[in-house]
Design goal:
The protein contains 11 helices and 6 strands. It is of the alpha/beta class. It folds into 2 domains: about 5-140, Rossmann fold (3-Layer(aba) Sandwich); about 150-210, Winged helix-like DNA-binding domain superfamily/Winged helix DNA-binding domain (Arc Repressor Mutant, subunit A), CATH 1.10.10.10. The protein is globular, with a radius of gyration of 17 Å. It starts with a strand and ends in an 8-residue tail after the last helix.
């Protein structure tokens, strides 16, 4: 039987390694790589081309939503299963809008995790029972004035927004992303114009409210 190839993505090393050890004991699965950041998840996805990536959301520098968008833009065949502690609407809808095929909570049982992996692998959507009703309700009652922030911003602007909210200077952001601090300032100004927010505090609040940053954790 051909194994389901998995990549685990979580910046909490002990949790990720514990899940990995359990999954490696399953005959049905093969853990081909582990990543502790959104950036490394993108690199591993390109290198290993897994069937499924089990993705945390709140990670510094690049969150799971942005990593999911970039991974699927390069290889739409990869399935993303969010494994997270978040039950808030911005995180749930953000991951589903980014293209995730499943959303499961870290409070789940191991049996449920296995079920979620199998469900997603066979092309179906898996939602944790604790949030499934919320997603349905929100999808029906979502105010039309609420736009997906990720559609409003470029991927570079989303990265810069997260780093701004995490307290990094333009120079530090430039170093992390391989661009000049002047270019970072251009992105910063574009963010203020697009979001109609004039202060760094306002940008930070926006990032937190929309689940873009782990600053509030």
């Amino acid at each position: 039987m051909e194994k389901i190839r998995l990549i685990l993505v979580d910046d909490h090393n002990l949790f990720r390694q514990s899940i990995g050890q359990s999954l490696k004991r399953e005959e049905r699965f093969s853990v081909v790589a582990e990543a502790n950041s959104g950036e490394s998840a993108i690199r591993h996805a390109a290198e290993h081309k897994p069937d499924i990536m089990i993705m945390d959301i709140s990670m510094p520098n690049m969150n799971g939503m942005e990593a999911t968008r970039q991974i699927l833009a390069e290889n739409a065949a990869i399935k993303i299963l969010a494994l997270t502690m978040h039950v808030e609407k911005p995180h749930i809808l953000g991951m589903l809008n980014a293209g995730a095929s499943g959303y499961i909570l870290k409070s789940c049982t191991y049996t449920e995790l296995l079920t979620a992996i199998e469900t997603v692998f066979y092309g179906e959507v898996y939602l944790s029972p604790d949030i499934a009703h919320l997603v349905t309700h929100q999808a029906i009652h979502l105010d039309s004035s609420e736009t997906d922030v990720f559609l409003m911003l470029s991927h570079r602007e989303r990265e810069v927004l997260q780093l701004i909210a995490e307290g990094h200077t333009s120079r530090e952001i430039g170093a992390k992303r391989g661009i000049s601090s002047k270019t970072v300032d251009i992105h910063r100004n574009n963010l203020k114009k697009k979001l109609e927010i004039s202060t760094i505090a306002g940008l930070t609040k926006f990032a937190i409210t929309n689940g873009i940053t782990s600053t509030h954790l």
